[in-house]
Amino acid sequence: MNNFQLPNLPLPSPLVGSEIGSFTEFTVTQRMPNIARRVIKENKFTTEINQNLEKLAAELPNGYLQPLKNDTGADFHDWEKYLEPYKNQRWVDVPWFFAETYFYRLILNITNYFQHGEWQGVDPFLLQKEQGLEAAIDAIISLCTQVQQWLNESKKAGKPSKSSLIALLYFALWGNRVDLSLWSAFEDNRSNFDIQTQLNNILVDDSFAVSKLLAKSENNRIDFVVDNAGFELICDLCLVDFLLGSGFANQVYLHLKPHPTFVSDAMIKDVYATKDFLAAGSHPDVKSFVQRLSKNLDSGKLILTEDYCWTSPLPFWQIPQSLKDELAKSNLIVVKGDANYRRLLGDVYWDYTTNFADIVAYLPAPMLALRTLKSEVAAGLKAEVLEELAILDPQWLTNGQWGVIQLVDLGI
Ligand SMILES: O=P(O)(O)OC[C@@]1(O)O[C@H](CO)[C@@H](O)[C@@H]1O
């Protein structure tokens, strides 16, 4: 295990909502209030709960962080510690990742998610997660058919196909475009896109290096730090299906969220809900995908696990030692999505050309980031690419049109 416990570079300042004109400001002062108001619209909570949600929405642009009442959540005392340095500060003045993560935890506090009673365990974002799946059914069928074909080819060849693996990495990457905190399920069906045309929008592509790393051994354990439910989760489950079915991996762990957050982030219950949704379909390739998924879950080849670390506001280099020790058993840690990428980098203003491995030098195993850019954090990009992007697409950092497949393998 490498001996770095932190990025081996001095940390820049964090993104904050008070940065005038930034996407961060837009998120804290406009997007997050809208997300809180959508929770009111999409649920049938009591008047008191809705008034408190509206109060939260109204205080975000200029107001102060409200305390967390003890809602018996397992992470309540941890949150008391997290909140200490930011008490009585404005939402726009605290680090953005803290503000956003706390915002979603506060929503559960207000809706009594953890407390015994009518609303215990009610996912405030359930409707959008369900709509997300229904909107993507055509893409799901074509992906399951493709995976079936790739598995058959690998079996016939007697060895796992690197090109099929790479193609599924692209699907898992672009599945991340569909994140419901940014787009509603119906606003624009972003699951229908042609992978080939997307290759030009990958700013760093280490997919071939990933295929070489996994081809080195047949007993790989691969750990996914999962991001969104819906179509992205299905892309991830198809990648997992191929990894296990082709022999690239003999065990896969999915690290999921212990409670609803970031609107569409996936929990263990969402994996089973997705399996049930697919099982209700009639397409033969989808049905055989579901059968393989069930078999992998029942046999322990696919493990679903959750930890409150994944919903904490801490940067990845502060994950508990016990989790670090667990991840040290992995041959490859796959970190999905933009919010997790922000955690990897600590959600600070790195120069975009900073060496990615110099920052993410603290993980105990090779790590692959699959991320579509939806926030003003980046690293590992070439100066000439930045020059081109500035002209080609000034919104490249936040519009979800660009992606990275970044591998850090320190030969641990
Ligand atoms: O982790 P995901 O689902 O890819 O993206 C989530 C997220 O990065 O998207 C929003 C737009 O930046 C942010 O508010 C939030 O952090």
UniProtKB/TrEMBL annotation:
GO terms for biological process: DNA damage response. Keywords: Hydrolase, Manganese, Metal-binding. GO terms for molecular function: metal ion binding; phosphatase activity. Belongs to the damage-control phosphatase family. Sugar phosphate phosphatase III subfamily. The keyword Hydrolase applies. It comes from Sphaerospermopsis reniformis. It catalyses: beta-D-fructose 1-phosphate + H2O = D-fructose + phosphate; beta-D-fructose 6-phosphate = dihydroxyacetone + D-glyceraldehyde 3-phosphate. Its cofactor is Mn(2+). This is Damage-control phosphatase ARMT1-like metal-binding domain-containing protein. The keyword Ribonucleoprotein does not apply. It comes from the Bacteria. Residues 27-385 form the Damage-control phosphatase ARMT1-like metal-binding domain.
